[in-house]
Specification:
Blueprint: E1 2-3, H1 7-14, H2 24-37, H3 39-50, H4 63-70, H5 75-93, E2 100-103, E3 109-112, E4 119-123, H6 132-145, E5 149-154, H7 164-173, E6 177-180, H8 183-192, E7 202-204, H9 209-218, E8 223-224, E9 232-236, H10 243-254, E10 261-266, H11 269-283, H12 289-299, E11 300-304, H13 308-311
Parallel strand pairs: 1-11, 4-5, 4-7, 5-6, 7-8, 9-10, 10-11
Antiparallel strand pairs: 2-3
Helix pairs in contact: 2-3, 2-8, 2-9, 3-8, 4-7, 5-6, 5-7, 6-7, 8-9, 10-11
Length: 312
């Protein structure tokens, strides 16, 4: 726990800055190689970086692989996925903007036209863990907007398989094409197209520094959502907040990456202390405890402010 004027707070803020200059030469080479050599480059990079030789099976996920994935997930997961899907759809439907037209005072027709993109690429991380939630949060806005073609890429395992939870989430979200592909090479394929993958209009979704730098390089030839840094969560809490839920929310992001930032801001020292105790309890139940612990030790904090106004 630290006070809001502690020097650690400023260091924590700077920790979220996106670097990546050190990997740019390698990323540029990957992007250009995929652009020139297409599928051949994708197979080579997938074998090199993911340890999977997909030359026989191919890059595209087959319908029978999705059917097999459904047999591996639990009814509880499907129920939770369905509820999350409805919650996300409900949120994004409220964001829809409608086209409008009108004649001005001299008879000119003015207005705004909103229409969906034709084809959008979804990048879903798959290196350190499976993220079905990332599938829903990238795909469902496109569904609401009316995008006709949603294309997902995600890194395969060393055996050339994809996580069944990720596959089921993609099917439930309405994704039409799924490819076993990750890293900068996936961004390049979505941008420029290959023999197997048609190019997209926009790429959305988080990834590691190689993915982020590839999006930076390709922006202009393709639209992107943003240049995302490591996972982060910041919670502002008052005395009504439940420390059990606060701890769970902090850990939900800390377990993503040792570079993740999980921060609680509150004017209530007791809330901060009880949350810290709860974090210690819940850490022991996490399969990814070591990653979460490293993240919290180096980039986590409970910041005590004078009042809620300062917290915000």
């Amino acid at each position: 726990m630290v006070k809001s004027n502690d020097s650690f707070v400023e260091a924590l803020i700077r920790a979220g800055e996106i670097g990546g200059e050190e990997v740019l030469p390698q990323v540029k080479e990957i992007v250009e190689t995929v652009r020139q050599r297409g599928d051949e480059a994708l197979y080579a990079y997938t074998e090199r970086f993911d340890g999977a030789d997909l030359r026989i099976k191919g890059l595209k996920v087959a319908p029978e692989e999705i059917e097999a994935a459904y047999r591996q997930v639990t009814p509880g997961f499907l129920a939770a996925l369905g509820q999350a899907k409805e919650n996300i759809l409900r949120f994004h439907r409220r964001q829809l903007q409608n086209s409008w037209w009108q004649l001005d005072e001299v008879g000119n027709l003015v207005g705004q036209l909103y229409r969906p993109l034709r084809r959008v690429g979804l990048y879903v991380p798959g290196g350190r863990a499976a993220y079905p939630s990332s599938v829903l949060m990238t795909a469902l806005p496109g569904i609401v907007a009316g995008v006709p073609e949603l294309v997902m890429v995600s890194p395969p395992s060393g055996t050339g398989e994809m996580n069944p939870y990720t596959l089921v989430a993609a099917k439930e979200a309405g994704v039409g094409e799924i490819y076993k592909l990750g890293g900068a090479q996936a961004v390049a394929a979505l941008t420029y197209g290959t023999e197997t993958i048609a190019p997209v209009d926009k790429i959305v979704g988080p990834g590691n520094i190689y993915v982020t730098m590839a999006k930076k390089i390709c922006y202009g030839d393709v639209d992107i959502d943003m240049l995302a840094g490591p996972s982060e969560i910041l919670i502002v809490a008052d005395d009504t907040a439940n420390p059990v839920y606060l701890a769970a929310d902090l850990l939900s992001q800390a377990e993503h990456d040792p570079l993740a930032r999980a921060v609680l801001i509150t004017p209530e020292r007791e809330v901060a202390e009880k949350t810290a105790e709860e974090v210690k309890k819940q850490l022991g139940f996490l399969p990814r405890e070591e990653i979460a612990r490293e993240s919290l030790q180096n980039r986590g904090a409970a910041i005590i402010t004078a009042d809620l106004e300062e917290a915000f």
